[in-house]
Task: inverse folding
């Protein structure tokens, strides 16, 4: 049986999760379900990034110690994923003992190899990014991403010899054209790497919320060096080793640089096999505005679900925009898709056909209707993470089924053979939709697998 290892970023537990975090985690859930459906052994990892200055500051603001602070918020992430029907295999935290041990081991290895050396760093540090900037990166003295005033830091630091890996990285991108997806993002990374890579500061002394360096306890490990290794440490558990390397890392485009440049360089240095693919998806805005806690434009998980239910939210996020492109979230657009597509197309098909079968029964026959479903195409689209197009294909077939009821005038002809074809087609539709809308798909499957099929209850109430 083929294995499939999929990950999400590990999120900063400095606040409750919002729609952006849900998006990546849902994408991974959809992929995990699809691969399980195809009989693969799947390992789906998500979790939280507990260390670092950002978390230390957020905890301090609430007068909590960082461990206690993150324990609390990590629970909120787990609750949210449960509400959204996200079925992961492990929730890792960078404060987990097994993870910390792996990071310490790797740090020793990379240090002994000579890829870590001591120096001094002077630069502009944005805590929200957990990254250093040079003066020319700044926009009027502010962080180019967060537009907040930025502090100048000078500290003794250990450096990772990132510059040494420039050619190896370029070679990696060349030999593996699918390493960075989508393709347009790949080009951006290659161009930036070609401009040159500076060595990377990987330790901090100005706070202590992190993993102490095994060769100098005065320093804690830089949060990104610690965090990225979560993907690897989760596979050091007994029985999980076979899952390495990762088949696909799902991330948002904001953190592609860390994943496409730092991460493979760290792994090359540590002598560990590289992940197969990194997919950087687009960014959601909310009513055309940036999702930002500080400016009050966020939509949290309870708000998202309250609009039209879990399945409609899951459906909307992957139907509205292609994975890889930016999208705008609005309640209005979600409700429209809920009404016009889930209720009017899918819901209508299910309720009409079930009512007709209850009245007239079915008669087994060859299924010419089902042949109109292009399964091969759907498989390719799914494997290419073109979720919106997958849904487009399935809903195109739902239209064909609805037209079939209409053109055959089944309510007059009482055509049991056509009803059989429709029943089988609906079962196939429910299977293909299961990764996206698991709860409704299971209801449909259950309903149409019954010995005596009865008229179904309304699946999606119109809003
Ligand atoms: O970056 N639209 O954590 P984070 C789409 N801890 N996706 C969004 C989004 C939006 N508006 N906002 C957030 C970190 N995301 C690090 C990661 S991994 C080793 C360490 C999603 O809590 C998207 O997946 O800031 C993005 O990459 C992630 O949340 C950032 O989460």
Result:
């Amino acid at each position: 049986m083929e294995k499939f290892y999929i990950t999400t970023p590990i999120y900063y537990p400095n606040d409750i999760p919002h729609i952006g975090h849900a998006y990546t985690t849902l994408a991974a859930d959809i992929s995990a379900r699809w691969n399980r459906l195809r009989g693969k052994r799947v390992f789906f990892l998500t979790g939280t990034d507990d260390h670092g200055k950002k978390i230390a500051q957020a905890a301090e603001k609430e007068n909590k110690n960082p461990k206690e602070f993150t324990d609390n918020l990590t629970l909120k992430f787990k609750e949210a994923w449960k509400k959204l029907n996200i079925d992961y295999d492990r929730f890792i935290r960078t404060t987990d003992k097994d993870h910390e041990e792996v990071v310490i081991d790797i740090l020793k290895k990379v240090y002994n190899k000579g890829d870590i050396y001591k120096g001094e760093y002077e630069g502009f540090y944005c805590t929200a990014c957990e990254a250093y900037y040079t003066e020319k990166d700044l926009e009027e003295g502010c962080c180019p991403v967060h537009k907040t005033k930025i502090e100048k830091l000078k500290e003794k630091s250990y450096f990772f010899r990132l510059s040494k890996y420039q050619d190896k990285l370029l070679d990696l991108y060349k030999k593996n054209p699918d390493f960075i997806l989508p393709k347009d993002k790949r080009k951006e990374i290659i161009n930036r790497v070609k401009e040159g890579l500076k060595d990377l500061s990987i330790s901090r002394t100005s706070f202590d919320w992190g993993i102490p360096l095994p060769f100098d306890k005065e320093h804690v490990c830089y949060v990104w060096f610690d965090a990225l290794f979560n993907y690897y440490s989760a596979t050091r558990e007994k029985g999980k080793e076979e899952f390495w390397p990762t088949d696909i890392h799902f991330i948002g485009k904001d953190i592609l640089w860390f994943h496409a440049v730092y991460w493979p360089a760290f792994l090359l240095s540590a002598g560990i096999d590289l992940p197969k693919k990194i997919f950087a998806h687009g960014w959601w805005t909310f009513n055309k505005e940036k999702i930002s806690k500080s400016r009050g434009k966020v939509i949290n998980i309870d708000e998202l679900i309250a609009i039209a239910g879990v399945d409609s939210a899951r459906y909307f996020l992957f139907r509205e925009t292609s994975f890889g492109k930016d999208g705008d979230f609005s309640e209005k657009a979600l409700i429209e898709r809920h009404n016009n597509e889930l209720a009017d197309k899918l819901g209508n098909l299910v309720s009409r056909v079930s009512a007709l079968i209850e009245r007239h029964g079915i008669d087994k026959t060859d299924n010419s209707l089902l042949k109109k479903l292009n399964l091969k195409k759907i498989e390719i689209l799914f494997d290419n993470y073109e979720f919106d197009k997958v849904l487009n294909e399935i809903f195109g077939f739902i239209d064909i089924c609805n037209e079939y009821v209409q053109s055959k005038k089944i309510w007059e002809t009482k055509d049991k053979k056509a009803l059989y074809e429709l029943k089988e087609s609906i079962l196939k539709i429910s299977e293909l939709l299961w990764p996206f809308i698991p709860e409704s798909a299971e209801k449909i499957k259950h309903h149409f697998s019954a010995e005596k099929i009865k008229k179904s209850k309304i699946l999606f109430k119109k809003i």
Q: What stands out?
A: Residues 3-281 form a domain with the Rossmann fold fold (CATH 3.40.50.620). The chain has a mean pLDDT of 96. The pocket of ME8 is lined by residues 9-12, 20-21, 23-24, 49, 227-228, 230, 251-252, 254-255, 283-284, 291 (CB under 6 Å). The longest strand covers residues 116-126.
